[in-house]
What we know:
The structure is a single chain. By secondary structure, the chain is mostly helical. It is built from six helices and two strands, in the order H-H-H-H-E-E-H-H. The protein has a two-stranded antiparallel sheet. It is elongated and about 55 Å long.
Amino acid sequence: MSVTQSSSRFARWPIVRPWIGLAARLGLAAVWLVAGASKVEDLAASGRAVNAYQIFPYDVASVIGAALPFIELTLGVLVLLGLATRLTAGVSVALLVVFVAGIISAWTRGLAIDCGCFGIGGELADGQTPSYLPEILRDLGFLALAGFLLIWPRTPFSVDGWLTGEPVVEDEDE
């Protein structure tokens, strides 16, 4: 590859990046909205799913489980709208790191649980096998989306852009 070809590819980055960001924003919004909606109808079950990780006392796990769907739904709405995108992405990164750490913790301690990420989780029945590696890899993918938005939060069709009036696509001359 010649230097001209290489610099040409990098020259397209300012044009392509916002659209990749929009896809990341919509994907992350879908994750949070589906995760929160799948738990919001049964907050007690969400609390039991958190308790299955055996990290917190039952009462604390119940409160976390009851709050989590509303946190996820709020993150989903904010990232969908593109409002406070960098802050929302930062909170998403932190929450996803906690989720990955929780799954790794359950796995290393030999717990047999369903993570409860997209619905009712908790202890698995005898004979059922947990699927920790796919859950961790999935959450790392979501973490990549949030990380992208943390670094490059400016995307098309966002409230952030409307409020600031800044163009999303940078001039090629800059």
